[in-house]
Specification:
The complex is a heterohexamer, with 3 copies of chain A (159 residues) and 3 copies of chain B (446 residues).
Chain A: H1 5-20, H2 24-29, E1 37-40, E2 53-57, H3 59-69, E3 82-87, E4 91-96, E5 101-114, E6 117-132, E7 135-145
Parallel strand pairs in A: 1-7
Antiparallel strand pairs in A: 1-2, 3-5, 4-5, 5-6, 6-7
Chain B: H1 8-12, E1 19-21, H2 23-26, H3 28-41, E2 44-48, E3 57-63, E4 66-72, E5 78-82, E6 97-99, E7 103-105, E8 112-114, E9 119-121, E10 147-151, E11 154-158, H4 166-170, H5 174-182, E12 189-191, E13 196-200, H6 204-210, H7 217-220, H8 222-235, H9 245-250, H10 257-263, E14 265-267, E15 273-275, H11 291-299, H12 301-309, E16 315-317, E17 321-324, E18 329-337, E19 340-350, H13 355-369, H14 376-389, E20 397-399, E21 414-416, H15 422-435, H16 439-445
Antiparallel strand pairs in B: 1-20, 2-11, 3-4, 3-6, 4-5, 7-8, 8-9, 10-11, 12-19, 13-19, 14-15, 14-21, 15-16, 16-17, 17-18, 18-19
Helix pairs in contact in B: 3-15, 11-12
The chains are: A alpha+beta (159), B alpha+beta (446).
The structure holds FE2/S2 (inorganic) cluster (3 copies) and fe (iii) ion (FE) (3 copies).
Chain lengths: 159, 446, 446, 159, 446, 159
């Protein structure tokens, strides 16, 4: 079965929508085991392991993060935060029909708000996507914040 | 509370031994006085020498609210200079780090300076003939801070020309730095990447106090650490499955009060102290194969065991840093305003040590101290709620009385129950000391 | 104008009967003194009991600049507590509303408190044995405000421990609240949804004065109300077509001066007053079928007629709320700084009343008082232009002289021509009274 | 006559452009009688009638709003505000070919400016669209502001 | 340094002839005193008459921190009024420019005023009968500034009712305006489009000093001007290819020090002065065919030659504007706070002059003074680095000593080497003079 | 050879990406000689010559601007700025197949950051595109900032 450019693009639009609508179970289900959500701390960072990142999380950590959001004693989420993406049409950078792996790059804005505060992050997301059992899945996701080395307050949801 | 400038009595009245007045956290005049007195007369952390390894390497930062440059001079020594052109005040560099070669050159009119700050050249110098420029401080170049000390790679400085010596200021507390550095078979650390930069809308002292606040983890961090433990249980792994690194790091946050009581707390004079005298949340990290052998090779068995025998938790170096020896982490709490603090969290590589330990430090740093950390989220929440809550006139005093004793003497090293708030009291004892250090003098002078 | 702290004379000099100095709107020191004196000694609105209907329900807000919690205690009463943990100052709750169950628990170290504020428990309490904690105010728990009054469902409080009584403070002005509540056949109101939250970069008093400023609607709101009337005319509907609800609401803003003169204005002591003594822009709303019958049933014909006979326009309860009886609306003008005010606009449902009236209140609220309201846009424009204009040194006094008389006596209720600025003067008379309420005392004490 | 997903998407792009270019007559002409422009005050608000909203306006109110903007004595518009949208590709959530009704969801940013001030709102717009006489028309429009319960200053144009 | 209000001695101590204390750039109290004294007693630029050509045309701006309106009155004269309604302080207009017809009308309650500020009408005036309104300043209408002068189309004003005369204040410096205006064959200028608006987070005086800082271009602007020269060379055009306009403008920034030394600097009393006495970076712009003929026609050959013979570079009119005669540019440095300055850069069309010159001015303006200008970028970088660097306590004095001489006398016009910092010293001499202008008086009065 | 609407749209997406990724040589190569990058100072400005603009630059000036960014003594770029666009799908306003000229309008957000500061501009870009030797090229580009008449600090990269 083959995958079209438009299918990959639609996949990204859908993935981001899940985050904004808090459909985390669906979102986690998109991930392949062994995948990592990486948010570098440094501009054009290459090493996720031996220098600090903002996030470099496997599925267990992502589940923990999501589960925590709904906890009765999750104080930093009383009240809850909300988030919102506006994404530019994704670029499909790689299409390896043969092994069913794909890479997309998406420029986007992320807005997170809580009480009377709101902030905006300019992001570039790189998705490694794989076709498994006829389904598109996330193999890895890298999210670069334009000013990744700036000082931030809490970033509580998933950019 | 009235106004504090040149009023040592009013400042001393802010700390009553068992409690402290909220103004120390909320009053902007006190913030300015902290910059002018406390951060000028105390020894303050600047950076690590590995951030400026080669001649001409510089790193721009601030000491209190003073912009400074850490630079490696042509003699190989690390110097700390005021980041201010003596001509019209232009900051000489504003990028966080770089290499300036043999000299600094101001971008505005090209006055140039040796990397120890001395004036090198002024274009069209003849324009100053017979003007008396040579009699001004401006002609001396970029001014250096009062005194600089490179202690095993960590650069500290005192802004004031004269005052307490490095040794008198830190005394026995240096043992924590020693232990952290000794963990490198080569006895050297190297900074590993840039620091996390985490902005807090609260007073810097709240963060420093939190470093030895052993009664908050199991409460404030239940949503992260507690949920982690629960999820891990649910995975229901076969007996004896080793904990993944992430669990080794986060699970101990849920330890019971007894655990923290038994950790113990040690205080040193001048506001320094640490948790984890006997053991700590870092005690049970899995060993890295081959690491011990390397240490034995380097230090001999006894010392090697002693080095790893220590698992000090957080060591506070008053006024505004904390280090974690077992994971080679250093956090700076940079005061930007009475209600604004920037936290920078560094990690270091053990020269000749196993890269696995660097990976552990990096994981700890991002899991616990990042703006995107599910642990950090709740800490910031507490600080910022407190900063707002202290606006309340319903109660003006903050309580730091746990395990308090009459007439505590902070001039002597002491070891106590790990849940005492003595270290917070120790910090305020030092706070008063260095806030009023030169006030009385100045007062007398008037 | 000099500095005002502990200077009652300077404060009294700001109000000359016919004019007021611009510092009352622009000076940040005066803002702080308003918080410390005026909002501490006056009775200030907190919330409505229906916002916390069940035991453990809380609502977090502020009185002046003091963070407080309105909470329903286990005894069924509504309490008002300072939102500040007695341990280290952490705000106990920061979400706008919720239910805390039987007790509050601080998220930082889990000190817990009954819903009346009393300390319930401290983890590892033995850490405080023999420390003298019991002798501190901190050990008492979350402090309650000075006094609380639940008047027909509206919660007011006085922060100061002692001072003027609720009855003496409000006196006859309570008749406006009575009329609003009586409009419910059950004699009860319930809050309908969350309030509009509208930020203004101007002083809070400009908004309060505007509530009885009857000479601005036909001018400032011509673009909205005037255009509405014009568009409706252009539709050229057949004779006797009933006005749509939106037109019923907005058209009266274009009423001529005579209309507003004849409305009448009543002032009460301590800064309270209202427009629409005889009739108002709310007088001609269409009747809701069956509503009158319900009222007659509940109150008898005479009282029912009397209740609907009143159509008071805006009643100002000094210092910072306004209510509209005929549409069950309440607006709070929350002072955030000398030049920053948050307006929250609530509407209420008449228990056992027709839902059509709730719909009318909701429509009024969004049409007139929303940040997206074409009417509100011009009001905010005026306030913010004035805040900037008052920076001018060309003229330092604001004129409030319309229908002014020598030696006005505000200690007596009075009814006057609906275009008088007397109510503004009445407010400043009370402003001076409560600003200096305890200054003289303190002065004497020194 | 049938309507394609792309036609619906183009319709939304065009509608938003009209607002940014101030082509209000064209914009009003898109509306069906009886339609409402609803901007909730509360997060996930369900009732537009008996609790407060930021806006819940029929065609008469929308005409009034638009007409006012050009008035000689519209003081809050001297000087005038300007607005600008950047919208993500709309999601077509419902296509009822049979009765010619459609629903789209669009994530967007709205920027409004006047003098030296500018603010950004993160919006999610839900359009109910109907095909009438071969033309796509707006039956209803709901605009949710991410931080709808935050305190705002004037919002003067149409988000 | 202590506090400065009503302390002329402390203010005088800030300027030592060869250096100035950093507080003049960083202290917010000094900023407020500058607004209250310096900008009130000096003559300050308002706008150009061509911005309000017709009766009723207005232009809203600020003088110091005072909001004012420049308006063309029915008598054809340009008036300057405080932008503050005498009723409650509302700004009468806030759009940058417009036409108000025969009168201003306040949008809040419709008080109206003639275009000279006189009260025209109050709606429902009878409400003020017997109130004594007529005895208030409010009843007089919109207050005009102290004095206004229209000098060849440029509008200046003095806020203070009395003080130094226009002629005494500017003296010989007006020759620069004369030369700029004379370049129009008709002897008139017209503003060409709106100004650039460029925000700087630095003190306004840094920008004013930079206007005669001839030792920075070849250093600070090497990256733009130097690269331009390099790229042009690389194009390797045939011998004698005329420079494109852009190169004519930017290349001279790389001129050597000698060039700037020979330009010369002239200073006038009261802080005025200019660079480019003998020639300047504007000297070698290509001639526009036919322009000289037009000038000869208008002025005769001798004067025409004299007009174009001048190529003054930057003329500073103290306190806060700079003009460039040869390209008809004017820049206003609007002080918004001690560390915030808005620069507005205007260009003017020569009435009856060639449009090519307007195009050149427009190109210069966008190339050099726009927020998006590669030249401006480095200037702003210097200012903002200096604003931050001056926070350093390592050195509190800013040096302005180049070509300094003992006991300089600024009361006499002088011409010196083009690299002297004398004009900066001249500005501070005037700064002290007008800062303390009425302080002593007031002091005496006390 | 004919050009499709989608090709024009893709061209804009690619052009903007070059700017964000600092591929300036590629970007300059897109331009036709005689083209101008115009950023008006005034709202709806019509004259680029005889009144001030923020930018009105020919290829020489654009080259200079780009070259400067990498200079050793470019002080305002030590440290360097970064930029990021999120663009809405471009509108193709004109397609003149005959002479191979095209016009697109694109609503976009531009974010520029340096050290701890970041700002956002709401932009509307108008591209004049020409088909030359089978390649799409930029004939002219006009970028309108929504609040063009507001006071700005440095805008250092290319919006
Ligand atoms: S400011 Fe540094 S050389 Fe002039
Ligand atoms: S701060 Fe509330 S329990 Fe410690
Ligand atoms: S404020 Fe201007 S007329 Fe009332
Ligand atoms: Fe913690
Ligand atoms: Fe109004
Ligand atoms: Fe310059």
């Amino acid at each position: 079965m083959s995958v079209s450019r438009d299918q990959l693009i639609d996949f990204i639009y859908e993935e981001v929508r899940m985050l904004d609508e808090g459909r985390y179970d669906e979102w986690l289900a998109l991930w392949l085991k062994g995948g990592h959500y990486w948010m570098p701390l440094d501009y054009k960072q290459t090493d996720p392991i031996n220098v600090t990142s903002l996030m470099y999380e496997d599925l267990f950590m992502l589940k923990l993060r999501v589960e925590r959001l709904t906890g009765a004693r999750t104080f930093s989420q009383k009240p809850k935060s909300r988030c919102h993406h506006v994404i530019q049409r994704p670029f499909v950078d790689e299409m390896n029909e043969a092994d069913g792996t794909f890479v997309t790059t998406t420029f986007m804005h992320y807005v997170e708000t809580r009480l009377d505060e709101q902030f905006l992050l300019a992001l570039t997301a790189r998705h490694e996507i794989a076709l498994v059992d006829g389904k598109l899945r996330i193999a890895n996701k890298r999210v670069d914040i334009l000013n990744c080395d700036a000082a931030f307050r809490n970033i509580q949801l998933l950019p | 509370m009235g106004h504090y400038e040149q009023n040592p009595a009013a400042i001393k009245a802010l700390f009553r031994g068992n409690e402290v007045h909220r103004d120390v956290y909320t009053d902007q005049e006190l913030y300015r006085l902290e910059m002018k007195h406390l951060f000028t007369n105390a020894w303050v952390f600047v950076g690590h020498e590995s951030q400026t390894p080669n001649k001409g390497d510089y790193f721009s930062t601030q000491v209190g609210d003073q912009p400074v440059i850490q630079v490696r001079h042509s003699d190989g020594e690390v110097h700390v200079l005021h980041n201010r052109c003596p001509h019209k005040g232009t900051k000489i560099v504003i990028d966080r780090a770089g290499n300036t070669g043999k000299f600094f050159r101001c971008p505005y009119h090209a006055w140039s300076f040796k990397t120890d700050g001395c004036l090198l050249a002024i274009p069209l110098k003849k324009g100053y003939d017979n003007t008396g420029l040579e009699n001004t401080d401006n002609a001396k170049g970029m001014r250096a801070v009062g005194e600089v000390k490179n202690y095993r790679g960590f650069i500290f400085c005192r802004l004031a020309e004269s005052g307490i010596s490095f040794e008198d200021f830190f005394g026995g507390s240096l043992s924590s730095i020693d232990n952290m550095v000794d963990r490198s078979p080569a006895g050297r650390l190297e900074v590993a990447g840039p620091p996390l930069r985490y902005m807090h809308h609260c007073n810097w002292k709240m963060l420093v106090e939190n470093q030895t606040d052993t009664c908050h983890p199991m409460v404030a961090h239940e949503s992260s650490a507690g949920t982690a433990v629960k999820l891990w249980k649910e995975l229901d792994m076969p007996e004896g499955t080793p904990l993944p690194a992430a669990m080794e790091i986060i699970a101990p946050f849920m330890s019971p009060y007894e655990f923290f009581e038994n950790m113990g707390i040690r205080t040193w004079p001048n506001g320094h102290g640490h948790t984890g005298v006997h053991n700590s949340i870092h005690s049970n990290y899995s060993a890295i194969p081959g690491y011990m052998d390397k240490l034995v090779e380097a230090y001999g068995e006894e010392k090697a065991k002693a080095i790893l025998g220590e698992s000090r938790h957080n060591t506070v170096y008053f006024p505004n840093i904390m280090i974690k020896g077992p994971i080679q982490q250093l956090r700076v709490f940079i005061p930007l305003a009475a209600d604004k603090t920037l936290v920078e969290s560094y990690i270091y590589r053990l020269v000749d040590g196993p890269e696995e330990l660097t990976a552990r430090s990096a994981m700890y740093n991002r899991m616990i101290n990042a703006p995107s950390s599910i642990v950090g989220h709740d800490d910031l929440e507490m600080y910022e709620r407190a900063q707002e809550g202290l606006q309340s006139d319903g109660l003006e005093w903050v309580n730091i009385q746990r395990l308090y004793e009459e007439d505590e003497d902070f001039s002597e090293e002491a070891i106590e129950n790990g849940t005492t708030e003595r270290q917070m009291r120790n910090q305020f004892d030092a706070w008063v000391k260095f806030m009023t250090w030169d006030m009385d003098v100045q007062e007398a002078a008037e």
